[in-house]
Write a structure and sequence with these properties.
By secondary structure, the protein is of the alpha+beta class. It contains nine helices and ten strands. Helix 1 packs across helix 3, helix 6 packs parallel to helix 8 and helix 7 crosses helix 9. The N terminus is likely disordered.
Length: 284
């Protein structure tokens, strides 16, 4: 049976290997939480770095400040206080944004099904309850962007669960759109459905891909239990970012989205404004 000391030695070896490849790392305690600040850094007495957008500890030699402690410096990782932390660690974590990565954390089978229907294929890593989908590029982090889905990138950490399988794709607009809040209306409400026509078939995959995407968008709106305005806007933004430039959307598709939103209590005016704002945000 593997002894705890072996596991801890593996954590340190893993951390050094990741750091050598440019991935900032930090140790995690039991419960998937970082080590707390030392007394000298408690309550940011040291000035801290919890709000900085670049990883790295303050001058304290301890692994303080959560995600901001993540480092690629082997001298820090091997320092005495860090080695003690690795001996007590339950897992290795990394700062995705510091490695120019974004992790789409899918927490259940329904979230995984949504990702397969809505997101470009990329490298996947199995987790305890779901999957991590990794994309190349950093963005704002956010929790609960939809049921069972978190975004981990800048100013956030993720557990290292292995290299995964598949080729890492570039971070798509549809993922960035998940954390975008709806702006104020910028155009009059009366508009026609703004879709370019370039042949009528979605070039991303197949017409079935579009139909599944619209169905998932309807489901996402229908499942909204709060923040319906924001959910409708983000859903419209996601659909347009994926299909709005290829000419595959039709009036019938958009009407399905509007109908789903109105079934949740949205007015026709709000649907039109949200659609217009989404187009404007994407430069369409």
């Amino acid at each position: 049976m593997t002894q705890p000391t072996d596991i801890r030695r593996d954590h340190l070896a893993t951390a050094l290997s990741l750091a050598a490849s440019g991935v900032p790392v930090l140790p995690l305690r039991v419960g998937k939480v970082p080590f707390g600040n030392c007394p000298a850094c408690a309550k940011n007495l040291c000035g801290g770095r919890p709000n900085m957008k670049t990883p790295g500890p303050c001058t304290c030699p301890n692994p303080c400040h959560g995600w901001a402690a993540a480092t690629t410096d082997p001298n820090v990782i091997n320092a005495p206080t860090w080695r003690q932390a690795w001996r007590d660690a339950a897992a290795v974590a990394y700062h995705p944004g510091g490695a120019d990565l974004t992790v789409v954390d899918l927490d259940n089978p329904a979230a995984i099904a949504w990702a397969h229907a809505s997101l470009p294929a990329t490298r996947t890593v199995p987790t305890t309850r779901g999957e991590h989908w990794l994309y190349k590029g950093a963005m704002q982090s956010a929790n609960a962007v939809r049921p069972g889905v978190d975004i981990k990138s800048s100013m956030q950490y993720a557990r290292w669960l292995g290299p995964g399988t598949g080729t890492i794709a570039q971070l798509p607009d549809v993922v960035r759109a998940l954390v975008v809040k709806e702006p104020l209306a910028v155009r009059p409400a009366t508009i026609t459905v703004p879709v370019r026509t370039t042949g009528g078939q979605c070039p991303h995959r197949t017409p079935t891909y579009l139909d599944r995407g619209i169905a998932m968008a309807e489901q996402r709106i229908a499942e909204a239990s709060s923040g319906v305005h924001a959910t409708v806007y983000r859903t419209f933004l996601a659909v347009l970012s994926t299909h709005g430039r290829c000419g595959c959307l039709t009036d019938a598709h958009v009407q399905r989205l509007f109908t789903a939103a109105q079934a949740k209590g949205e007015t026709a005016r709000h649907c039109t404004d949200a659609w217009t704002n989404a187009r404007t945000a994407l430069g369409m």
